[in-house]
Amino acid sequence: MDKIIIYTDGSSIDNGSPDSKCGWAVKLMYKGQSKIKSGFEKGKTNNYMEMLAVLNGMKSITNKNIHCEIISDSKYVVETMNGKFRVGANKELWVELLAEKELFSNLTISWVKGHSKDSHNNDVDSVAYQTACKGENNMESATLDQVKQEQSIFTDLWNIYKQYKYIKSDLEWENYISDTDKLFKSKYIGTQHEEMYRDLLQDITKQLERNMKNAI
């Protein structure tokens, strides 16, 4: 039986802030072929971006008579679209989402646990976050190989961020600077990913500075 599978995810760096950098991503899968699309927004929440990912995934399907399954790690989005939760915030976007849903002859909406062993979910999670960090729309041309090549940067820096998430002393801050500098010199200096590393490091550093201010 023909079935289109769409994995979706949304990301918001500094969630809820007017200056939050946000990204959505979808992975379209059909008859052994796959394609990734993504987009950038600013000043949105994580829930909004999760919804926007689903909407853009549905809009990517031209033949809405084929059975389609949307897979998201947002229970908020999945349960609301399945009628178990009431529509709350972002009502205008919900109206558009639910109207688009009605255009499908056979649409299934399923939940998957995020940050687990589902490689497709991990792909859209990575691309949504990358798009938010880079502030670029239309990564439609991105291949899975490109995604996997770039994912190591985010994994490396994210591990450092988690280690220093709540810096409490000048020594810890110096250690953070030292660790990121060592990582840059050992893996990314002089490579095609050097600029991406610098951009992401800048975003993570700003977030750490906000964490420090909020802790005072």
- Name the average pLDDT: 84
Helix- and strand-based class? alpha/beta
Q: How far is the first residue's CA from the last residue's CA? A: 58 Å
Tell me the strand percentage band. Answer: 15-25%
- H/E element sequence: EEEHEHHEHHHH
Spans of at least 5 consecutive residues with low confidence: none
- The rough form would be described as globular
Could you give the order of strands across the largest sheet?
3-2-1-4-5
Sheet bearing the most strands, described? Answer: 5 strands, mixed
DSSP helical segment count = 7
Gyration radius over CA: 19 Å
The number of E-state strands comes to 5
**Helical content (DSSP H or I, runs of 4+):** 40-55%
General description of the model:
This protein has 216 residues and is of the alpha/beta class. The chain contains seven helices and five strands, in the order βββαβααβαααα. The protein has helices at residues 46-59, 75-81, 91-101, 119-134, 144-163, 170-188, 194-215, and strands at 4-13, 21-30, 33-42, 68-72, 107-111. It has a five-stranded mixed β-sheet, with helices on both faces. Helix 5 (144-163) runs antiparallel to helix 6 (170-188). The longest helix is centred in the last third of the chain and has 22 residues, at 194-215. The chain is globular and about 60 Å long. The model has no long low-confidence stretch (mean pLDDT 84).
